[in-house]
Design brief:
about 425 residues; 8-stranded mixed sheet; 5-stranded mixed sheet; 15 helices; 16 strands
Length: about 425
């Protein structure tokens, strides 16, 4: 027998019973970003491989081990995007929308791809919402990004389950001085480092700070601290960010080991973390990347942004039981019609109601069926009310109105009065 077809490991279907929660989350974020003045941009999911090598860094884990890269028919090396910032920078450069110092506040949503070991909260195809801001270099915009996420956590009901961690990586010059001091220190303790950290010591030493290995963490206790090597400009920027967060009342923890996994970060880096998801504790992360646009061929352009993982945040909503009751119901009203004449009248009546109540979720029975079978489908749909059209109702030009959840007797409503009645019942019920 041939092997049954199935999804690729780590690339998951999002089934109909799951999508209402996804749509709720995505809609909540989109409304929030609209309110803060951000505009949506949409980029391709495939880019030239060179884009990510130049932006993320060739010695990062993402480029070395995790990218989905292939040659197309023209012999070009292409990659499924592993993150969104590089693609967004490429887009604004290609279309010139940051030229002349134009401020751009952009956001995007979509799938990203990394060949990682799948586990709870970590997948090979995963979805992110990302924000990128160009041509603003002060700590005020860094603070705005964090304040927005703080408001989002409040709207979602998960604020008590997340913690903000902050650090500053300084400029490339100050980070270079720190890197030298860190390498000197770690080299003196080389034998105590885990194998992965020994490799990173030669290629990307700051990533050693990110290790989960307990023995290496013990070595890092006395390692040099980035804060001691910050330049005056970066220190003032960081103090300005903290002052703004203090003014708004957002709690945070300073984490000197927070470096992020991408080479392009400078100055501010931050992560929102949780202890509700096991090993995958980061739900939103980002920072400033003032040198990235120039690194990719543009003029010097300050930039800052973040990305949040949709899978992890949806999982948090489920774990914390913060799912609004109304999103579990996808149908408000279910119309049952018996006989061809009633079916035709029911279609016309349903469209009249939809004209007057465009937000009403009205489902008309399809496939005919007996009284019992149609009511069974009405109940299974989750609808609050059933509408009934049979011979008696047709003769009187009324529709039977039957509550399906809770108290209430069946009553007859004139066709012309149905929309007004539904507006009252569905909105208030």
């Amino acid at each position: 027998m041939s092997k049954s077809l199935q999804a690729i490991r780590g690339m998951n279907d999002i089934l109909p019973e799951q999508t209402p929660l996804w749509r709720y989350f995505e809609g909540t974020v989109a409304r929030l970003l609209d309110n803060y003045g951000y505009k949506q941009i949409r980029m391709p999911i495939v880019e030239f491989t060179e884009l990510f090598k130049r932006s993320i860094g060739e010695v990062t884990d993402i480029v070395e081990k995790e990218m989905y890269t292939f040659e197309d028919r023209n012999g070009d090396s292409l990659t499924l995007r592993p993150e969104g910032t590089a693609a967004c920078v490429r887009a604004v450069l290609e279309h010139g929308i940051t030229g002349g110092g134009q401020v751009q506040k952009l956001w995007y949503i979509g799938p990203m791809f990394r060949h990682e070991r799948p586990q709870k909260g970590r997948y090979r195809q995963f979805h992110q919402i990302g924000l990128e801001v160009f041509n603003l270099d002060g700590p005020d915009i860094d603070a705005e990004l964090i304040i927005m996420t703080w408001r989002l956590w409040g709207e979602l009901g998960i604020r008590d389950a997340v913690k903000l961690e902050l650090n500053s990586l300084g400029t490339s010059e100050s980070r270079g001085r720190y890197r030298e001091a860190l390498v000197e220190y770690l080299s003196a303790h080389h034998d105590k480092l885990d194998e992965d950290s020994q490799r990173r010591l030669k290629t990307n030493p700051l990533r050693v700070l990110d290790t989960k290995n307990a023995d290496t963490q013990a070595v890092l206790v006395d390692a040099p601290k980035m804060a001691d090597y910050l330049d005056d400009e970066s220190r003032a920027h960081f103090e300005g960010l903290k002052a703004r967060l203090d003014a708004v009342g957002i709690p945070y923890v300073l984490n000197p080991k927070l470096v992020r996994g991408l080479d392009y970060y400078s100055k501010t880096v931050f992560e929102w973390v949780t202890d509700q998801l096991g090993a995958q504790g980061t739900v939103c992360a980002g920072g400033r990347y003032d040198g990235l646009v120039e690194q990719m061929g543009g003029k010097p352009t300050p930039g800052v942004g973040f990305a949040m993982g949709i899978e992890r945040l949806v999982l948090m909503l489920e774990t914390l039981e913060q799912i609004p009751q109304e999103i579990s119901r996808q149908v408000d009203v279910y119309l049952c019609a018996f006989g061809e004449e009633a079916e035709l009248a029911g279609l016309a009546l349903a469209e009249r109601v939809r004209d007057e109540l465009p937000n009403l979720r009205l489902q008309v029975n399809a496939g005919a069926g007996s009284f019992k079978s149609q009511f069974k489908k009405a109940d299974k749909s989750g609808a609050l009310y059933a509408l009934i059209l049979g011979d008696d109702e047709m003769a009187q030009q009324v529709v039977g109105f039957k509550p399906l959840r809770g108290q209430g007797e069946q009553q007859s409503i004139a066709w012309d009065a149905l929309a007004a009645h539904l507006a009252t019942c569905v909105v208030q019920g």
